[in-house]
């Protein structure tokens, strides 16, 4: 099952866990109230998984590819890692399914504090449009992930501050309704 926690304020290596002291774990229900969805799937059968197909059909995830993030496989690795860790949001959902390896998604809560979500093989997450977030590898420096989209992929990140955009306004309205 996925593990999530509030982060400390340390500015050192982002690949470290950065758990707040004392520990402040975050459960799936708290993530759901932020609009973050989670599934645990069998990554060894992703090519023929009826559960993944059901989710894709229900949520209209029609496009997918696979990305491997490590120094040997990703062109412009250092630049991309820095870009992934810059706080941003997207106009559409961000859907990632970890097929191998591990990493962290960080999302902002209602009070603008960071929650770290540890993702490993078999974890699938959907971040809602308009949520500020970032991604980093962990100390293993390797992840292979499926990227899913509704329709054609749009990769545009909107770095903070971008609160004037409609996706952010809709997200804040969602938070207000679910408070």
From TrEMBL:
Pathway: Amino-acid biosynthesis; L-methionine biosynthesis via salvage pathway; L-methionine from S-methyl-5-thio-alpha-D-ribose 1-phosphate: step 5/6
One annotated GO biological process: L-methionine salvage from methylthioadenosine
EC number: 1.13.11.53, 1.13.11.54
Domain of life: Eukaryota
MF GO annotations: acireductone dioxygenase (Ni2+-requiring) activity; acireductone dioxygenase [iron(II)-requiring] activity; iron ion binding; nickel cation binding
InterPro entries named among the record's database cross-references: ARD (IPR004313), ARD_euk (IPR027496), RmlC-like_jellyroll (IPR014710), RmlC_Cupin_sf (IPR011051)
Subcellular location: Cell membrane; Cytoplasm; Nucleus
Cofactor note: Binds either 1 Fe or Ni cation per monomer. Iron-binding promotes an acireductone dioxygenase reaction producing 2-keto-4-methylthiobutyrate, while nickel-binding promotes an acireductone dioxygenase reaction producing 3-(methylsulfanyl)propanoate.
Catalytic activity: 1,2-dihydroxy-5-(methylsulfanyl)pent-1-en-3-one + O2 = 3-(methylsulfanyl)propanoate + CO + formate + 2 H(+); 1,2-dihydroxy-5-(methylsulfanyl)pent-1-en-3-one + O2 = 4-methylsulfanyl-2-oxobutanoate + formate + 2 H(+)
Residues binding Fe(2+): 88, 90, 94, 133
UniProtKB keywords: Amino-acid biosynthesis, Cell membrane, Cytoplasm, Dioxygenase, Iron, Membrane, Metal-binding, Methionine biosynthesis, Nickel, Nucleus, Oxidoreductase
Residues reported to bind Ni(2+): 88, 90, 94, 133
Family as reported in the entry's similarity comment: Belongs to the acireductone dioxygenase (ARD) family.
Quaternary structure and partners: Monomer. Interacts with MMP14.
Listed name of the protein: Acireductone dioxygenase
Species this protein is from: Ovis aries (Sheep)
Gene: ADI1
């Amino acid at each position: 099952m996925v593990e999530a926690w509030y982060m400390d304020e340390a500015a050192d290596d982002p690949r470290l866990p950065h758990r707040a002291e004392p520990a402040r774990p975050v459960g799936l229900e708290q993530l759901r109230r932020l609009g973050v969805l989670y599934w645990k799937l069998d990554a060894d059968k992703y090519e023929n998984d009826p559960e993944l197909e059901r989710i894709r059909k229900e949520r209209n995830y029609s496009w997918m590819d696979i990305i491997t993030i490590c120094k040997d496989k990703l062109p412009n690795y250092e630049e991309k890692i820095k870009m992934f860790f810059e706080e941003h949001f997207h106009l559409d959902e961000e859907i990632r399914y970890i097929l191998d390896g591990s990493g962290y998604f960080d999302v902002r809560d209602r009070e603008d504090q960071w929650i770290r979500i540890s993702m490993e093989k078999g974890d699938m997450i959907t971040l809602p449009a308009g949520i500020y977030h970032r991604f980093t590898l962990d100390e293993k420096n390797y992840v292979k992930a499926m990227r899913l989209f509704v329709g054609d992929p749009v990769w545009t990140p909107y770095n903070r501050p971008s609160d004037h955009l409609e996706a952010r306004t809709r997200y804040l309205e969602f938070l207000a309704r679910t408070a």
